[in-house]
Design a protein that fits this description.
Shape: elongated
Strand content: under 5%
Radius of gyration: 15 Å
Order of helices and strands: HHHH
Number of strands: 0
Helix content: 55-70%
Number of domains: 1
């Protein structure tokens, strides 16, 4: 069962999935985001372009970087 939610994502991630969805025969972008999240929690390997998009978004996310720095300091 799918649940409708409101979520805030980085613009570049949304644009990436929308561009993928615009390709012939592609799934809708929401479906692609859902599939990517499902693979991430199951430990399934992402495609290189998907991994690069996620990496780029995380490197721009100051909250994420701050949390990583705090974990490193705690070790």
């Amino acid at each position: 069962m799918k649940v409708r939610i409101a979520i805030t994502l980085d613009e570049d991630l949304v644009e990436h999935f929308k561009a993928e969805a615009a390709k012939p025969g592609a799934l809708p972008y929401q479906t692609q985001i859902n599939q990517t999240l499902r693979r991430a929690i199951s430990g399934e390997q992402l495609r290189p372009d998907q991994a690069e998009a996620i990496k780029a978004a995380l490197l721009k996310d100051t909250d994420f970087l701050r949390a990583v720095a705090q974990r490193i300091e705690a070790q």
